[in-house]
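Anyone able to model this chain together with magnesium ion?
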Amino acid sequence: MHLHEAQKKVHKYISQFKVGYFPPLANLARLMEEVGELSREINHHHGPKTKKSSEDCGEEKIAEEMADVLFTLLTLANQLDVDIDKALCETINKYQKRDQSRWEKVE
Ligand SMILES: [Mg+2]
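re: yes, here you go
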């Protein structure tokens, strides 16, 4: 699925509810919440702090939290009229030009 298509699906999902989009700052707070949840999963999976035995763990939880972050970011992009496909392409191009000779290349 392309990000453009994902943005449309997120919009279709949100638009079915009368409440619609939360204000941008509320969605930014939601994004930070999801980044925190992703951080927690990665910390539990790769860091020294283990989860309680009653809690789910595993890489599927990391993937789930990554998708939550992306969903919330796409929500914010929709309401701020950002074409995230275009923005991501521009960012990748920026890094390719800026860091062209920054790192030693694989031979
Ligand atoms: Mg989450």
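The mean pLDDT is 93.
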